[in-house]
Design a protein that fits this description.
- It is a single chain.
- It is built from 3 helices and 6 strands; from the N terminus they run βααβββββα.
- It starts with a strand and ends with a helix.
- By secondary structure, it is an alpha+beta fold.
- The protein is globular, with a radius of gyration of 15 Å.
C-alpha cells in the first residue's frame, strides 16, 4: 500500500519547526496534550492513551531515527489492537529563512486496515495528519 503523505509549507524557520516537533513542552501545545514525555533520541520510548468515541487507543512510540533539524522517525504501535507497527516520519526542508517544507509520511497503515475500526482507515489517518499539520502551522504563526 502507498504511504500516507501530508506536506505543508510552514511559515517558520527549520529551527522553529524542529523545536515544535521535538520539544515536549511545545509538542503538547499543538500535538497530543497528554504525551508524558518526548526526546528526539534514538531508542526513546513513550506511551499514552487517546480516547476516541467509545474506544481507547494506547499509543506506544519509539524513536528509531533522528537527523537534527531534518527528520525524526517514530515507530507507532497500538498493542491492544494488532501486533504490527506503523512508521511515521516528520521531515523538514528549508525553503528560506522563514519557510519550511514540512512533510509527514506514515508507512504501515495497511496492517490496521482490515480491523473494521474507523480510526484505522486510510482516510482517517490522512485526515488526522492534515489536522495536526494545520495545528502546527497555526501554533507557529
Amino acid at each position: 500500500m502507498e504511504p500516507i503523505i501530508v506536506a505543508k509549507i510552514i511559515n517558520a524557520s527549520v529551527n522553529e519547526v524542529w523545536k515544535a516537533i521535538t520539544n515536549h513542552s511545545l509538542m503538547i501545545e499543538w500535538f497530543f496534550e497528554n504525551i508524558p514525555a518526548f526526546e528526539p533520541v534514538v531508542g526513546f520510548t513513550t506511551e499514552f492513551n487517546v480516547q476516541s468515541e467509545e474506544r481507547n487507543f494506547l499509543h506506544v512510540w519509539k524513536v528509531v531515527e533522528v537527523v537534527e533539524e531534518q527528520k525524526t522517525v517514530c515507530e507507532w504501535k497500538y498493542p491492544e489492537y494488532v501486533d504490527a507497527s506503523m512508521f511515521v516520519t516528520f521531515e523538514l526542508k528549508s525553503i528560506s529563512d522563514s519557510k519550511t517544507d514540512f512533510t509527514i509520511t506514515a508507512l504501515g497503515i495497511e496492517h490496521f486496515s482490515g480491523m473494521n475500526i474507523p480510526e484505522f482507515t486510510r482516510e482517517s489517518c490522512k485526515g488526522g495528519w492534515e489536522y495536526f499539520s494545520n495545528r502546527l502551522q497555526q501554533f507557529l504563526v
